[in-house]
């Protein structure tokens, strides 16, 4: 339980950082720049001290969740539909800019002494993107709020797993097909970046805007699951009993 809670907290920070990157990219397109000190996590080499936008996102979602699960559920459902539409638009638009040569070699050769290329590279990459699947696990944490969980939870988990994985693969194929994989190194908003570089500025800005809104749904899901775990700890006596009480909302 404690390990799972730590996993959720790390995931929240990771997702909020991604939201911050998209927000900054969107603001830059309008000529607005944040001070370097407030543009990212602590990094003395770059002068970054605090990611103000990431902290703002977490606080905002926390306030929304405090208003009640039903209200948040309506917001999240709308956001998810919006995200799916934009992902499909990205795949359709990006597919028109695919260059087959970028897929060669499909699996780059392994470089000795590194984690790049070959089966080693695939496994190293898989170990880094596992966090993208935390949301599926978070669904199970909300079983107590689910109607007929014995039937709906398995369907929801498997359905979202297959759908999400399918979109992950399609988006990755489009991204790598549009430009050589190496161009995305260190880029926190690769999809919008690829669209801008391909000349699809309107679609890129639309994607960034929806990402700014859409990443909130991930934050909502993870923070909601985190609060459910903390409630369970309080109820079971692992934390203060006050945390095991449910607000009537």
From TrEMBL:
Main location: membrane
One GO cellular component term noted in the UniProt record for this chain: membrane
Gene Ontology MF terms in the entry: amino acid transmembrane transporter activity
Transmembrane spans: 7-27, 47-66, 78-98, 118-136, 157-181, 201-225
Keywords noted in UniProt: Membrane, Transmembrane, Transmembrane helix, Transport
PANTHER family noted in UniProt: CATIONIC AMINO ACID TRANSPORTER 4 (PTHR43243:SF4), INNER MEMBRANE TRANSPORTER YGJI-RELATED (PTHR43243)
Name the record gives this protein: Amino acid permease
């Amino acid at each position: 339980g404690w390990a799972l809670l730590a996993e959720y907290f790390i995931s929240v920070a990771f997702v909020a950082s991604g939201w911050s990157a998209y927000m900054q990219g969107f603001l830059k397109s309008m000529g607005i720049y944040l001070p370097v000190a407030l543009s990212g996590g602590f990094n003395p080499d770059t002068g970054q001290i605090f990611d103000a936008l990431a902290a703002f996102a977490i606080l905002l979602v926390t306030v929304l969740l405090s208003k009640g699960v039903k209200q948040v559920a309506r917001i999240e459902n709308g956001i998810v539909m919006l995200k799916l539409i934009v992902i499909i638009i990205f795949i359709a638009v990006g597919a028109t800019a695919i260059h087959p040569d970028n897929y060669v070699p499909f699996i780059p050769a392994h470089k000795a002494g590194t984690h790049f290329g070959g089966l080693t590279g695939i496994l190293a990459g898989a170990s880094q993107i596992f966090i993208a699947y935390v949301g599926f696990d978070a669904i199970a944490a909300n079983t107590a709020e689910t109607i007929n969980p014995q039937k709906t939870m398995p369907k929801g988990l498997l359905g979202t797993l297959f759908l999400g994985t399918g979109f992950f693969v399609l988006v990755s194929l489009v991204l790598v097909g549009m430009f050589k994989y190496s161009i995305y190194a260190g880029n926190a908003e690769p999809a919008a970046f690829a669209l801008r570089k391909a000349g699809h500025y309107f679609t890129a800005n639309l994607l960034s805007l929806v990402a700014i809104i859409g990443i909130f749904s991930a934050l909502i899901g993870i923070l909601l699951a985190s609060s459910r775990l903390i409630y369970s700890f309080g109820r079971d006596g692992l934390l203060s009993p006050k945390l095991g009480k449910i607000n009537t909302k």
